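Sequence only, no structure available. Ideas?
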Amino acid sequence: MTSPLHVHVVDPDVHRRAKIAFELRELQVHGEIYEGLEEFLASAPATGCVLLCDEAGAEEFRNLASILDPASANLPVALYCKAPAPARIVGVMRDGAVDYLAWPFARDMLETALERLRCEGELRAAKSRTRLSAKARVARLSARELDVLALLMVGDSNKEIAQRLRISPRTVEIHRGNMMRKLRARSGTDAVRIGLLAGLDGADEELQPLAA
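Reply:
I predicted one. Tokens follow.
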């Protein structure tokens, strides 16, 4: 492993939990144990990744989709069970699972899954930081500068923005310049991207590093 990893193990079987905790310790990975998904959700951990027992028909796993969805969940998830069905594997991978393991774990497969979880966790953390940075920049804008950015985001020109806001084109240029400076945007396109990342229109844009 190239960086510390914190693994949340969610499994109703006490013997399996103990075995997994032991295997994680051998790999020098810290494991946090939960008896079920309800307990895990109640604790709401903010960091790490999840190893989740996927027992068909377990009522408490009704919230599985909510923790798999990369758009709404911060922690990457890998599932496991005995002899998983191919259709089930495909389904949960489409829902957002990073990996699916057969129990008991083969050591090399577990190590591969943990590395995938680590990489996905780092990627999600970077995306989260990018969003927070964009929101912080947008929060610096005055009400009028925010108006200019919002209209820029729908494709209006300076002249059209001036007409909508009933101000002069020169005043729009001043507000736009101040807005660009506060956002640290290199161009109008960059300003629009930062606005999208900040969630001004609710769009789920592909994240890229913000301008320095």
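Residues 202-207 have pLDDT under 50 and may be disordered.
Hope that gets you unstuck.
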